[in-house]
Amino acid sequence: MTVLPYKDKDTAKKQQVADMFDSISPKYDFLNHFLSLGIDIRWRKKAIKQLQEIKPKNILDIATGTGDFAIESLSLNPEQVVGVDISEGMLSVGREKLKKRKLDDRITLKSGDSENLPFDDNMFDAIIVAFGVRNFENLEKGLTEMFRVLRPGGKVVVLEFSKPKSFPFKQLYNFYFKNILPTVGKLISKDKAAYTYLPESVKSFPDGKMFTDILDRVGFNKTQCKPLTLGISSIYTGIK
């Protein structure tokens, strides 16, 4: 069953996700760092290091949001970074952030659908996604599009929430994710659905080997899963 942000609406998941991120975009960065205690920043750094070996010149950041992952990728000294997202609200916040940091000449943010990418085949050396594939309406279609626009020999790096397995951390995590996070998220963002949807979407996401199996199925090779922080999130990689 598809997990939706707004269960009382009959619009498709893709539109609901866009509406949800438009709604929370002004508070998104603050909530991201606050609710994760800043650990999400370290996760992004670790994920980007997975690309050091291939020295990518052209990087595509899918579901770029406000551009944090794209900004982190600049540590690789690429020639071009392009970020795409379906939420104009998030992109607007991201563009302002890039202007303030004088990075708007190094990163381009575009409106784009991850399941129908507006790029030619074999165009990018690396594709990165942070906390975005969980929101795809059709996961396999989105991953297939990523495979299409990645050049042969290129690498995909996906950072996504996963589910801790060990006691008692699993129980503590579940309590925080189901009770504290939605309450704080609602108070600050004023959108109750957004931070109720988050734990529900993580619970339904095929993490670990289930996700690497899907990467294998769409064509990626040498797929790997690297759990982070006792399994709260994972880095997935694959080669075309």
Automatic annotation (TrEMBL):
Gene3D superfamilies assigned: Vaccinia Virus protein VP39 (3.40.50.150)
Alphabetical UniProt keywords: Menaquinone biosynthesis, Methyltransferase, S-adenosyl-L-methionine, Transferase
Catalytic activity field: a 2-demethylmenaquinol + S-adenosyl-L-methionine = a menaquinol + S-adenosyl-L-homocysteine + H(+)
Sequence positions that bind S-adenosyl-L-methionine: 66, 85, 113-114
Pathway, per record: Quinol/quinone metabolism; menaquinone biosynthesis; menaquinol from 1,4-dihydroxy-2-naphthoate: step 2/2
InterPro entries linked to this entry: SAM-dependent_MTases_sf (IPR029063), UbiE/COQ5_MeTrFase (IPR004033), UbiE/COQ5_MeTrFase_CS (IPR023576)
GO terms for MF: demethylmenaquinone methyltransferase activity
Biological processes, Gene Ontology terms: menaquinone biosynthetic process; methylation
Enzyme nomenclature, EC number: 2.1.1.163
Homology family: Belongs to the class I-like SAM-binding methyltransferase superfamily. MenG/UbiE family.
UniProt cross-references to HAMAP family, sorted A to Z: MenG_UbiE_methyltr
Function, in words: Methyltransferase required for the conversion of demethylmenaquinol (DMKH2) to menaquinol (MKH2).
Full protein name: Demethylmenaquinone methyltransferase
Organism of this sequence: Marivirga atlantica
